């Protein structure tokens, strides 16, 4: 976390790509695909998925180059622009994001268990209770048994991917492709908002790519790892979206029950959800540990778990789309800033030794962050727009603002 990765610890790109893909095989991404496809229909929905993931993929390629050259974690890279003390609020936002994903996944997991118990045994166990109990078990795994689940993920994710493709096959047996294409979206979301939601739902992977891609052997391998996101994430959302159009359901277990594949779906999804959500909470704990470095990791883990479990039990998924949209507005500019700092201001070089002389608080970065986030907000709620996609506007404006501000203040 705090030092460059030695070259002898580098691994092959395919393993890193698999880990990146595995993180996307999670219930909130499935839910996102269902919601957006319902709003836009098949063609526009699929286009939004692919465009959003391509944009995130391009951003991730740039951040992966930073990682391959510096071999530093996201936390260390951010210090060059935000300062060694100023980086803490940024990391706090990233930690909140991880914990938010944990709560959202736990909430969907609870609904899936509720639907399954009701369908199979006629037990009407409240979904919030199922979510809370499941989240407690996942939290305990994150704190005490992460390594076991990490190893299991390499088996669970390919199985889930194969099963999801099978689900589409079953769905298209119930309704032909022409009929699926003819189902109109309800139109409650604009195309730009949908693309921004896809970006917001996946932006953390691009911003935090150095945590994974710093283990790449070289820049070429780092760029190849992006395939796990660019090809994998649209597939996940397409599977969920097509299934939703056929069944009219966005709840994952109701979809599976409608397609008569509920039992295998439940078994596979329990293990896959357990794996990915353990990673979410584990990442949140590690990120918070860099903010509250005087607090024991055990206390941070306990507090994070309580917040995540409470969010899952209270139904945080009711606010899921606004949440991922907020991430696009608030998080995308962060990547724009550290990319501008690396490629333009520091001419493609971040040396570990230079961290001793960076600013305590990077004023330039904070001003650019505010301007970038503000522009993304304006894209949403006014006629002012560069690309019509708020997250992209925020990233571009933050990138340019940081360059201009830094050069003006150093002149």
Question: Tally of extended strands?
Answer: 0
The overall pLDDT average reads: 83
Q: What Rg do the Cα atoms give?
A: 21 Å
CATH architecture: Orthogonal Bundle
DSSP helical segment count: 19
Straight-line distance between termini? 34 Å
**CATH 4th-level superfamily:** Hydantoin permease
What is the CATH topology?
A: Hydantoin permease
Number of domains: 1
The global form is globular
Secondary structure category: mainly alpha
Q: How does the major sheet shape up?
A: none
Give helix % range. Answer: over 70%
CATH class: Mainly Alpha
Poorly predicted tracts of residues: none
User: What percent strand?
Assistant: under 5%
Written as H for each helix and E for each strand, in order along the chain, the element string is HHHHHHHHHHHHHHHHHHH
Structure commentary:
The structure is a single chain. With 411 residues, this protein is mostly helical. The chain has a single domain (11-318), classed as Hydantoin permease (Orthogonal Bundle), CATH 1.10.4160. It contains 19 helices and no strands. It has helices at residues 13-24, 27-40, 42-70, 74-82, 87-121, 127-144, 146-174, 177-181, 191-207, 210-213, 219-224, 227-230, 232-247, 252-258, 262-291, 297-313, 320-345, 363-381, 390-410. α7 crosses α13. It starts with 12 loop residues before the first helix and ends with a helix. The mean pLDDT is 83.
Brief write-up:
The chain has 411 residues and is an all-alpha fold.
